[in-house]
Please model this.
Amino acid sequence: MKALQYVSVGSEPQVREVPTPEPGPGQVLLRVTAAGVCHSDDFVMSLPAEAIGFPLPLTLGHEGAGTVAAVGAGVREVEIGTNVVVYGPWGCGVCWFCAQGLENYCSRAAQLGIFPPGLGAPGAIAEYLVVDSPRHLVPIGDLDPVATVPLTDAGLTPYHAIKRSAAKLRPGSWAVVIGSGGLGHVAIQLLRHLSSARVIALDVSDEKLEFAKSVGAHEVVLSDADAAKNVRKITGSAGASVVLDFVGFQPTIDTAMAVAGIDSDVTIVGLGDGKSSARVAFGISPYEAAVAAPYWGSRSELIELIDLAHEGVLDIAVERFSLDDAPEAYRRLSAGSLRGRAVIVP
Model:
């Protein structure tokens, strides 16, 4: 079968012929119908060899959708032909966090060498994908897999971040979204649907700001050296109750902290360069402001998102690429020229 693989440190991903996998006991084989492209992949491919904790080559793609093609011994939970998406942050399934569906925070994954697909285990940008357990599959019924697959990360990650701050998204409050790309444009829609807060979106060009408006932002501000001052002109002295930074570089983190109000939540979602940080201390950060850096979301939250998708309240912007054109999707991702999420359709 064909698969997009990261072959060696510092190289571009390549489309290669690899053996078609077979499901082992307890596993499920999917015929992939769609796979998302994410900045996390770009971040992994920027790491030096000593920082990569898994062997290469690696088939990329941690956002996956597919049709159940075969099951391993002992699997009774899913039927052949079922259309599903894949819950990506696999865990042990039995620790305290996994027992709550929070496999994204599995306390034993590192110890047991458990990796998400595309981030250590073979990923979804291929013709077939083996999923380690049927509990990591969520049926999607008649939803379009291309429009739905970004929900597994680009939707799940902001949904988790927004839910944890739900109490602060009250009428009259302001939510600031920094970066209106793959995750940010979904966050804007979720904020509009799930809360009565008013939404300010920040991005680096007029085109991106117009896109943010088109998906529901009440106000838009250019993300530059004056961004914090211009946001404060809108929010007034109260500042923002919730700030979601989907970029994660030092300038955006500094902006996030500068626009946050008293007793606010600042959530840094974007990976940035992996070195940037927020300054939190008395007299530096707003009183009682909480800063968090979450990772993905829970299995139950992905189920809730799929239910929202069935209600038709989300409009995910996608650009389709064939499997042969997948390397170009990553070039466009690095260049910042994608509108929404790139999706590979084998």
Observations:
- The chain is about 25% helix and 25% strand.
